[in-house]
Structures are given as structure tokens and as C-alpha cells.
Design goal:
about 425 residues; alpha/beta; Rossmann fold; 2 domains; 8-stranded parallel beta sheet; 7-stranded parallel beta sheet; 18 helices; binds adenosine monophosphate
């Protein structure tokens, strides 16, 4: 039964968390280790002449694209990782999304590729999901937007092979993709890997959770032996340390201890509500905040029924689930970013890696399956140093899981009530909403 599974899962999560702590201790004892207390990502508001990226020795095209993006100072992970990667070292990094880790590996790799004359790709980045693959590919594209003739291609499942095959035939610098589809292309001979001299494993723990270990090992075995390797993971369970030991060569190690601080930007709350009152509670919450909201539910069916109910209440809503074709999903995310959609009702897999700065509220309509899922869900808000709010719906039977979740994330989740008519009316009258 799903609930039983959840209980076991949360208990074992706690064990896993303790193991992670042990692994951190072990990592701290290794040589070359840089451990950094990081503040959540803050976009610098320094003066216009300031440029903290000058010291890395990047070429002018990269500096220009950083200027276009408005980046003035590197984040702690960028400060620590970029010099090591510029030297060509392997790197093992423990960092969450939201710390600026994508630019930390993308910028030095673009710099290295500045004069790539090969037809075949030189850098391969593997990510657990197509959403993250798209996002990482977009980052490479924007950081290289001023570099002439630089090409990044994303390849992932759920989309047609033909476009990917023709993209892989042209001159190409970086391939970003999910393990299954990368494997297919290598097997079919449509992805020529002989010139790959750098491999990045992004969100390695997620890839393992999704059962990609064998595929990843198969792919690594096909790649040229002499290559730079970068492994980023939010957590360091023993399987990840084993991969690092097996494949990384004397890596620089960076631990960004920002997990607590990042989630501190997100105010975490729970609401005690019985199953048959959930939709009403949701509608009331949306009366107070309906701009930039993600609602997480457990099934595809629920995404559509809730979206319909909210649409009938006058909200602009879209759904994101595994049945929605990839191009439509991308279109939905784009519309959410631009503010044409205010509310997204999503399943977990569909919303992984989603990076939309305007998300102010995450509603856990259905209780998350485990600690990692909860952390990923709430991490969709509080992006790029902004604050956000996360509300978790809890019923009588789930109260026990709530305590486990609080223990394993070491966070106190504050109880709130379903907003009353009085509070909703006050908000409608333009008064500031205060928690009841
Ligand atoms: P990531 O951790 O790679 O998912 O990045 C989180 C967000 O921070 C993304 O929206 C990036 O565009 C943004 N970002 C990364 N580095 C910087 C920087 N140095 N200055 C400002 N924003 C940044």
C-alpha cells in the first residue's frame, strides 16, 4: 500500500541522512577538500564597473555574455570550482541547485572549447531528467551566446530521434542529455564520442535514484579514457563515493554547506486538512496567493482534475505531467516564466529541475514520497536568492510522516490554519495578510 511504503521510505531516509553525515566526515578528511559555508545565491547589486569574473581569465566573449546576463560576482561554488576546472582537474562537488553550480562547470568548459575545430562533441553532460537537460543546455547556450560558432545540443527521451540525429551530425561542442537516450545514440552510432574529453555527471544522486547506474557505467566505459571528469551531487551516499573513487582522478573536492541556509529562504508550513476538504483548502490558499504557484500531486489524473477545478474558479492554470509531450511542456514552462500562466499543477518527475524565479508558493497537495522529493519540490520556490513559501497538506494518517520529515530535514515545519473568510476578505480589501 502506498502509505506503508511512504513510512518505510521516510524511516530509511533518516538512516540515509545519518549515513550522509558520516560520508561528509569522511570527505572532510580527504586532501584537496574545500569546504565552503555558502550564503544562498545573491544577485550582486554592486556598481556597474565591478566584475568579479575578471580574475578567472575568461575570454572576452564569455565576459560579454555574463555581462548580458547581469552576473557581476561569482557564487561561492563558482569561486571554488572554476579555477580547478580551468586547470583541467577532475572535480567532485557536493552542491544543490540554486547555488550557481551549472555556471561553475559550464563557464570553464566553454572557455576550454573556445577554439574547438572538431566536428564531434568534446563535452558530454549527463542529467537525470529531460527538464534538467534542457535547462543545462539553455545555460550553456546563454553563456556561449557571444562565442562564435559554439553549439550545444540537448538529447533526451520522449522526443523524435530524427532532429537529434541531424543535430548530432553538425559541428557540435557540448551534448547535454539523459543516460537512456545518450546510450541509444551511442549504440546506433549516431553520437560520435571519440573526441569527448570531458564528462559531467550532474545531480548524480538523482540519476542513481532513478536507476541509471548501469547505463552511466556503460556510457563511461565507451568514452575515451583520457578525459576530465566532473561529478556534482546534492548528497554523497556511498554509491556516489564509489563512482567517484572508481572514475575520478585525484579530484578537487568542494562541499557547499548551503542546504540549511537555502531552505531558510523558504518559509515551510503545514496545514492539517482531511482528504475531502483538500480542494476547498487549496482554493482558499489561492485566494491569498495566486501568482507563481506550483501544486504537487501524486497522479497524472489528479493534475488534470485539479487544474480543471481551479480553471473553473477563474485561475490561469496549466498541467505538467509525464503524458504531456516535451514541446508542450517546454511551452508551458515558458508561459509560466512570462506570467501567462499563474498556477502549475504537476507530478514530481515532470517538475524536476524546473527553474522559474517567479514561483512564490509551492503547495504539497499530496504528501511527498520521501525527503528528497520534498526538498526538490520546495526548492522550486526561493530561487536565485528570493524568498518563497511552501505549504504541505497533512491528514490524520500522515501526521507521523510529518514528524519523520521534520527530523530527517532537521527543519521545524510550522502549522497554519486554512485561511478563514475574514482573512480572505481582508486580502481582497487590500490589507496585508498575516498568518492565522
Ligand atoms: P543553478 O544552481 O545552476 O541552478 O543556478 C541557480 C540560478 O542562479 C540560475 O537562475 C542562474 O541563472 C543564477 N546564477 C548563477 N550564477 C550566478 C551569478 N554569479 N550571479 C547571478 N545569478 C547567477
Amino acid at each position: 500500500m502506498a502509505l506503508k511504503k511512504e513510512s518505510n521510505s521516510l524511516d530509511s531516509e533518516q538512516e540515509k541522512f545519518q549515513n550522509e553525515d558520516a560520508s561528509l566526515l569522511e570527505l572532510k578528511n580527504l586532501e584537496n577538500k574545500k569546504e565552503i559555508e555558502s550564503q544562498p545565491l545573491e544577485v550582486s547589486k554592486g556598481n556597474d564597473n565591478e566584475n568579479g569574473f575578471l580574475d578567472f581569465g575568461f575570454n572576452q566573449s564569455i565576459l560579454n555574455s555574463l555581462r548580458n546576463k547581469g552576473y557581476k560576482n561569482p557564487t561561492p561554488i563558482q569561486k571554488a570550482a572554476i579555477p580547478e576546472l580551468m586547470l583541467g582537474r577532475d572535480l567532485l562537488g557536493q552542491a544543490q541547485t540554486g547555488t550557481g553550480k551549472t555556471a561553475a562547470f559550464a563557464l570553464p568548459l566553454i572557455e576550454k572549447l573556445a577554439d574547438n575545430k572538431e566536428l564531434n562533441a568534446k563535452v558530454l553532460v549527463m542529467t537525470p531528467t529531460r527538464e534538467l537537460a534542457t535547462q543545462v543546455a539553455e545555460s550553456f547556450k546563454s553563456y556561449s551566446s557571444e562565442s562564435s560558432n559554439f553549439k550545444t545540443v540537448a538529447i533526451y527521451g520522449g522526443t523524435d530521434y530524427r532532429n537529434q540525429i541531424s543535430a548530432l551530425k553538425r559541428k557540435i561542442d557540448v551534448v547535454v542529455g539523459t543516460p537512456g537516450r545518450i546510450m541509444d545514440h551511442i549504440r546506433q552510432g549516431t553520437f560520435k564520442i571519440k573526441d569527448i574529453n570531458c564528462l559531467v555527471l550532474d545531480e548524480a544522486d538523482e540519476m542513481l535514484n532513478m536507476g541509471f547506474l548501469e547505463d552511466i557505467e556503460w556510457i563511461i566505459d565507451q568514452l575515451p579514457e583520457n578525459k576530465q571528469m566532473v561529478l556534482f551531487s546534492a548528497t554523497m551516499p556511498s554509491e556516489i563515493r564509489n563512482i567517484a573513487k572508481k572514475y575520478l582522478n585525484d579530484p578537487a573536492e568542494i562541499l557547499i554547506k548551503s542546504v540549511k541556509k537555502e531552505t531558510q529562504l523558504i518559509s515551510q508550513k503545514y496545514l492539517y486538512v482531511q482528504r475531502h476538504h483538500k480542494l476547498d483548502a487549496l482554493k482558499r490558499i489561492l485566494e491569498l496567493n495566486n501568482e507563481g504557484v506550483i501544486i504537487f500531486v501524486r497522479t497524472k489524473l489528479l493534475t488534470t482534475s485539479i487544474a480543471e477545478a481551479l480553471e473553473n474558479s477563474g485561475h490561469t492554470v496549466a498541467v505538467l505531467n509525464g503524458d504531456i509531450p516535451q514541446n508542450q511542456r517546454e511551452n508551458t514552462v515558458d508561459r509560466l516564466k512570462k506570467g501567462f500562466i499563474d498556477i502549475l499543477v504537476a507530478t514530481d518527475v515532470a517538475a524536476r529541475g524546473l527553474d522559474v524565479e517567479r514561483i512564490k508558493l509551492v503547495v504539497n497537495y499530496d504528501f511527498p514520497f520521501d525527503k528528497e522529493t520534498y526538498t526538490h519540490r520546495i526548492g522550486r520556490t526561493g530561487r536565485a536568492g528570493r524568498s518563497g513559501e511552501a505549504i504541505l497538506f497533512v491528514n490524520q494518517r500522515e501526521k507521523h510522516f510529518l514528524r519523520n520529515l521534520e527530523n530527517s530535514t532537521r527543519t521545524k515545519i510550522e502549522e497554519i490554519n486554512i485561511p478563514s473568510n475574514k482573512i480572505i476578505n481582508k486580502k481582497k480589501d487590500g490589507e496585508t495578510y498575516r498568518e492565522c
